[in-house]
Design a protein that fits this description.
- The chain is mainly β and 399 residues long.
- The protein is built from 4 helices and 28 strands.
- The chain has a domain of 116 residues.
- The protein is globular, with a radius of gyration of 20 Å.
- About 2% of the residues have low confidence.
Length: 399
């Protein structure tokens, strides 16, 4: 019911924002309590007192060998435009160094900071001379760096997927960057590139998508792609195709097989967030046949299997490792965000963390839980101490 009302109000963003904020304020007064964190596991703050966050839920901030941790530290902000330091901590010495700075950053995905291997990080940056966004591949041990011709969204081996972050900003998306001066307003495209050469090529255009997605209304606006995510093997990727109409936002979850150059529709109803469970199966919070919840989608048979449907857990960001799924929730009436661990169709509430009401919508801080590479820790971002910090839960230290 509330989701349906929210979608109808999408055409009136200021009214929607006012009603949402008023409702949250009233509910918070009724449900207020003094606890800002409740957790089954020891909670360790990984960032220093200056604060910081990692960003999206689809990557781990810890290097594959477990020796380093990376995050963003916002050092300057002006509206939706930010400048961030790229910070790296050595677990062995505890030393934190600033590896670089970037203006290609937002509060949800950061600079798409991600580990390529044990020594190299890749992240986006803004080049004011060309008024363009690109990516930088940097070795944190030697300081050597290499610039790519396009920004990165996702990485698989030496390949990367890319899209136009200027376009995301123009469409009002909180995942865009806002440092640039000009945008030409071109049709959306998806690129794939080679990190060894830095080159990239177009692999999907709007015309390609319109061959598999029918019935796009004439009043469609803010047409864009988002949430590119390689399959574990890198042979395919999923992505969102989104646009707005007079009746609200529409979205499609699609899959592109790179070798076959073939695109199929996985879901044409609401899709919120997804993750790969294996090369052929996706878990995601979405709507299927009118029911909203977490489903598994077999990308070969297109069969849906309900996981947690019409449950009290609500929407969240899923990640998967070794048969266990993590997901979080948006703030409840008491402004508590919940972190869940699920396995064998059972759900454990691992912890609840307070989110101050002043941090809302574009400026919110989702928990975005993700496993460490060895699966022994969970990393998450939180505001429960009044500032963005990156935290970890030690799963082998149950209270």
């Amino acid at each position: 019911m509330l989701r349906s009302i929210a979608r109808r109000l999408s055409s009136y963003p200021e009214l929607k924002r006012f009603l949402k904020y008023s409702y949250q304020g009233v509910m918070f007064l009724f449900h207020y309590h003094r606890t800002n964190v409740r957790c089954r596991f020891p909670v360790l703050q990984q960032t220093d007192e200056a604060g910081g966050f990692f960003g999206y839920y689809d990557k781990s901030p810890e290097s594959p060998d477990g020796k380093h941790l990376a995050w963003h530290r916002i050092v300057r902000s002006e509206g939706k435009r930010f400048e961030s330091e790229i910070c790296v901590k050595n677990f062995g010495t505890g030393q934190i160094v600033v590896a670089d700075k970037t203006e290609a950053v937002n509060l949800q995905m950061g600079a798409r900071l991600q580990w390529v291997d044990n020594e190299r990080l890749v992240y986006n940056f803004y080049n004011p001379e060309t008024d363009s966004y690109r990516a930088k591949l940097k070795n944190i041990l030697t300081g050597n760096e290499h610039t790519l011709d396009a920004p990165v969204f996702d990485v698989s081996g030496n390949r990367f997927l890319s899209l136009d972050f200027k376009q995301l900003a123009a469409c009002g998306s909180e995942y865009g960057y806002f440092a640039h001066r000009n945008f030409s307003g071109t049709d959306p495209v998806i690129w794939e590139g080679d990190m060894l050469t830095g080159d990239h090529r177009t692999i999907l255009t709007l015309s390609d998508i319109l061959k598999v997605v029918s019935g796009i209304p004439e009043d469609a606006a803010d047409i864009h792609f988002n949430h590119l995510m390689y399959a574990p093997s890198g042979k395919a990727f999923i992505f969102f195709f989104r646009f707005t109409t007079g009746s609200g936002r529409r979205e499609y979850l699609l899959l592109h097989n790179i070798a076959l150059s073939e695109t199929i529709v996985l879901n044409s109803e609401m899709t919120s967030h997804c993750c790969w469970m294996n090369d052929y199966t996706i878990a995601g919070y979405l709507s299927h046949q009118g029911k909203a919840g977490f489903f598994r989608i077999d990308t070969v048979t297109l069969q849906y299997q309900p996981m947690f449907v019409d449950s009290q857990h609500g929407d969240g960001h899923p990640s998967w490792k070794n048969g266990i799924m993590l997901f979080d929730s948006y703030p409840d009436h008491a402004r508590m965000q919940h972190l869940y661990i699920s396995g064998n169709n059972q759900v454990l509430l691992a912890g609840s963390f307070y989110s101050p009401m002043i941090f809302d919508e574009f400026y919110r801080c989702d928990l975005h839980p993700r496993f460490s590479p060895d699966g022994k820790k969970i990393y998450f971002d939180s505001l429960h101490q009044g500032r963005r910090h990156l935290y970890s839960l030690e799963l082998n230290s149950h209270e």
